Amino acid sequence: MSCDTVLKIFYQSCRAVQHMHKQKPPIIHRDLKIENLLISHQGTIKLCDFGSSTTIAHYPDYSWSAQKRSMVEDEITRNTTPAYRTPEMIDLYSNFPINEKQDIWALGCILYLLCFKQHPFEEGAKLQIVNGKYAIPQNDVKYTVYHELIRSMLKVNPEERLSITELVNQLQEIAAARNVNPKSPITEVSD
């Protein structure tokens, strides 16, 4: 796909997530993945599958019992897709908050997939995810405008990830620099 098509798909997806995160309390989608992005007849992106959405964030700490961690792990297993799980979900003992920043990580995986036609964490390899071990293809020159954005979403520490508003603002800057209306219909779709 062209760089501009990726921009439109991703921007429109992020705007849908931004609407969720702006609610009081924020609504966390929890199952953002490429399969949950649909293209309408008008050529705009529609986010679907809200069955896993929640307003409940978790703040693990050293006082959590093994039973409490196990209950949260079961909930995560039921409501998320392995390849899109965040480091803080896989390793509850990291004691990082499990909140709307999990959607930012998933968006990072989606942008990576849109650019490079593969998932940054193939097979949902837990150790790779926990350590944030992925690689942006070294020979990529087509999507360089997104490299830093991907890195800023796929941070192991959720507190270091961009907020949805920061992400949308950066995408608007990229769109302005490229003279693209990111809200306009998507006309080019590849397999």
TrEMBL record:
Gene Ontology molecular-function annotations: AP-2 adaptor complex binding; ATP binding; protein serine/threonine kinase activity
Gene Ontology CC annotations of this record: cytoplasm
One of the GO biological process terms: regulation of clathrin-dependent endocytosis
Keyword NAD in record: no
Signal peptide: none
PROSITE patterns: PROTEIN_KINASE_DOM (PS50011), PROTEIN_KINASE_ST (PS00108)
InterPro entries assigned to the protein according to its UniProt record, in alphabetical order: Kinase-like_dom_sf (IPR011009), Prot_kinase_dom (IPR000719), Ser/Thr_kinase_AS (IPR008271)
Pfam families: Pkinase (PF00069)
Gene3D superfamilies to which the protein is assigned, alphabetical: Transferase(Phosphotransferase) domain 1
Protein kinase domain sequence ranges: 1-175
Keywords: Nucleotide-binding
Top-rank lineage group of the source organism: Eukaryota
Protein name in UniProt: Protein kinase domain-containing protein
Taxonomic lineage: Eukaryota, Metazoa, Chordata, Craniata, Vertebrata
